[in-house]
Amino acid sequence: MKYILMMNTMRAGQGVPEWPKKDLQAHIAFMMSLNKDLRESGELVSAEGLSFPDQAKLVRAGNDGAPITDGVFPESKEFLAGYWIVDVESPERAYALAARASAAPGPGGKPLNMPIEVRPVMSAPPREML
Amino acid sequence: MTANSWGGTSEHLLRELAPQVLGTVIRRFHDFYSAEDAVQEAMIAAFMQWPQDGIPENPRGWLIQVAARRLTDQLRSETARRQRETATVVEADTISPAPNITADMDTDDTLILFFMCCHPALTSPSAIALTLRAVGGLTTAEIANAFLVPESTMAQRISRAKQSIKASGIPFRLPTTQERALRLPTVLHVLYLIFNEGYTSSIGSQLQRLDLAREAIRLTRCVKALLPDYAEVAGLLALMLLTDARRAARTGPDEELIPLTKQDRTLWDRSEITEGIALLTAALGKGSVGPYQLQAAVAAVHDEALRTEDTDWPQILALYDLLKRMSANPMVSLNHAIAAAMVDGPSKGLELLTTLDADSRIAGHYRLDAVRAHLLEMAGDHPAAITHYRMAAARTTSIPERNYLMTQAARLVES
């Protein structure tokens, strides 16, 4: 069963770029080792980190179909920072992985306990239905 | 013969034969689209049969025969289908099998394939995929894995590339000497892109990923053997070897990026450096100096310095001066500014950067911020350096690079 684990973070201010070097390195090392474990356990389908939110644009089609972009977002908005797609035995395992990611170390090495949204990934219909 | 002893050499042999076999089959059947599939099937058959039966006496002939048979069968069944559909009775055996096509083998076939796959009519991603598959003899799954895209996506990309070649009616023949000079830069650019993809993504424990940098080197060696008189081909091969030589020193134990100036130079691959320098020296002696040779020369100057402080920056600056005159590329200007800062001090480098702010090709690119941050740090302006390290971190699309830039900013905050 596949699940997507979506990591949401707040915008600038408490953002990662302002952390002290030691905490930054601990955070990076934590994420590296999580990804390594997931690869080695054969549960990782894919994982992507996203650019910082100041690179984000909201795009809509205008009347003529041309893109209309909007790029200034309120400070308080939560942004998707990255995601994992895992293939696991049970929802409990997906939740356990999400909890591990959630506890990634932040400033002073304290767990961030950030919210991780976990949702099943839709799959192709079973063979009988084809 | 055991499967193990079979593995290394024969896989190498198969990959070497792939473009030659494909070239011959295309010339015989005039159909790149079907020939390519047939040759892949023949390669798979060889992978299955050779470990058990041993390598045939004439492996190339064996592969050509198998591919030709597949293609003939396919054409026959298509003819039969068409006949059923039109209900006309024609002689069934309209396609003559190929009894002895090993005789009309031509080493130029591999070169024609290179020019075909790296055709200017194709987009870069298409040309890259097609080159790896048709000339490199890689499977679609291997290529997809190397670029981290689903296999179906890569299969579609290759299929579209083949269709474009079919639709464009590009003849399967060797370009004339004149055409060759015009088209060679496209071939070299595709190989350069493959190398870069491999080199930049080699960061991190990309388990079981195909080594694209090594594949690019192998293919460039192949072009070099086919076109020994083109100095830029040798220049590109030298550039790849002189860059690849530093691979082991580029990342630390936790997969973090280590910049050139901080690398443990004892980890550099001396044999690659020696070969690269020999190639470059021979190429420069031929007289027609091009951008690849100059970039290789810069790489050689770095590689020759046993310690960072021994780097011959005036020579690097002179090489970038030449490169800048040869191609008006903002990335060259950026490197030129770094060299100028190392020779004449950071303020000279920063002054050169201001001209790049007006260049829309690079303004807002993270590399400009990263270089500016580095030069500001050299100049002792730490607050401005921190700002630019962070701006660069926000703009890069590479996670190891972002981590590196954020760490640089944090280091300065604490100093």
Question: What attributes does this structure have?
Answer:
heterodimer; A: 130 residues; alpha+beta; 4-stranded antiparallel beta sheet; two-stranded antiparallel sheet; 2 helices; B: 415 residues; mainly alpha; 70% helix
The proportion of strand residues of chain A reads 25-35%
Measured as a percent range, the helix fraction of chain B is 55-70%
Largest sheet of chain A: 4 strands, antiparallel
Biggest sheet architecture of chain B: none
Number of helices of chain B: 18
Rg of chain A, alpha carbons: 18 Å
The unreliable regions of chain A are none
Q: Using DSSP, what is the number of strands of chain B?
A: 0
Q: What is the residue-mean pLDDT of chain B, rounded to a whole number?
A: 85
Structural class call of chain B reads mainly alpha
| SSE arrangement of chain B, N to C | HHHHHHHHHHHHHHHHHH
Describe what is shown at a glance.
The complex is a heterodimer of chains A (130) and B (415). With 130 residues, chain A is an alpha+beta fold.
Q: What does this protein structure show overall?
A:
Chain A is α+β, with helices and mostly antiparallel strands and 130 residues long. Chain A contains two helices and six strands, in the order βαββββαβ. Chain A has helices at 21-40, 91-102, and strands spanning 2-10, 44-49, 58-61, 67-70, 78-87, 116-120. In chain A, the strands form two sheets. Chain A has a four-stranded antiparallel sheet with strand order 2-5-1-6, with helices on one face. In chain A, a hairpin with a 5-residue loop joins strand 3 (58-61) and strand 4. Chain A starts with a strand and ends in a 10-residue tail after the last strand. Chain B has 18 helices and no strands. The chains are: A alpha+beta (130), B mainly alpha (415). The A-B interface holds A 16-17, 19-21, 24-25, 28-29, 32, 36, 39, 49, 51-52, 54-55 and B 204-205, 207, 254-256, 390, 393-395, 397, 399, 403, 406-407, 409-411, 413-414.
